[in-house]
Amino acid sequence: MTPFDNAVEAKQFFISRIVAEAVRENAPLSDLEKRTLYFTETGSDAKQEYLDDVAQFEDQYDDWEYEEKVTSLLKKAHEYDSEHPEELGVEDANQIYKSAYEILSKEDHYILVMIDEALGAKLRKKLLGIF
Questions:
Q1: Mean pLDDT, contiguous 10-residue spans, the chain (131 residues)
Q2: I need a labelling partner for 20 at 20 to 30 A (CA). Which of 9, 55, 67, 76 fits?
Q3: Nearest Cα to 24, choosing from 67, 72, 63, 57?
Q4: What are the backbone angles phi and psi of residue 88, rounded to the nearest 5°?
Q5: Residues contacting residue 127 through CB under 8 Å, at least 6 positions apart
């Protein structure tokens, strides 16, 4: 049984971990940076406002720098959560990350670019049962 019912919940989990890590580092994301994490053109939660946000984002930010920043935050969030799983209310943080990834990766979401870069190999190995 997974703690996530759908891709939207799984995506929200990853976004919450990224935002929490940015706050821990005393470098919170801007509202536009947060909204950009929700972007999808074809996912179950696709909305016109996501396209509008991306257009605004592209005028103000460098994609590569943003993706590097989010990738780094997600790596650190995973490390932190692995050391403090009780803060997520679980015994094994890796399991909840794996569950979220498994559900989210069934759809096309921008955040997966950064998840794959930060944790993809680790999460895929766990999905395949390779350790």
A1: 88 98 97 96 91 92 96 98 95 94 95 95 64 46
A2: 55
A3: 72
A4: -95, -5
A5: 98, 101, 102
